[in-house]
Amino acid sequence: MLSKALNHELDRIVLSYGHSLTGQSPSVKFSELIKLQQNDNGPEGVILIE
After folding, report:
1. DSSP secondary structure string, the chain?
2. 27, part of any domain
3. How many whole angstroms separate alpha carbon 25 and alpha carbon 19?
4. N or C, fewer C-beta in 10 Å, the chain?
5. pTM score above 0.85
6. Structural domain contains residue 46
7. Over pLDDT 70: what percentage of the chain?
8. At residue 49, does pLDDT exceed 80?
9. Which domain holds residue 17?
10. Would 47 be classed as within a structural domain?
11. Please, what is the end-to-end C-alpha distance for the chain in angstroms?
12. Is residue 8 part of a domain?
């Protein structure tokens, strides 16, 4: 259940930035999200987790 919820939330977040993810697991998707944000914002980008 948690994995499914994380997948959904990561997809929603990335879609809001106009991107999509190819990974299947939350860990791969989160890694992709970090790389996308670094490409968009440079290495100084910050991702906050609540």
Report:
1. -HHHHHHHHHHHHHHHTT-----SSHHHHHHHHHHHHHHHH-TT------
2. yes
3. 17
4. C
5. no
6. no
7. 98
8. no
9. 2-41
10. no
11. 18
12. yes
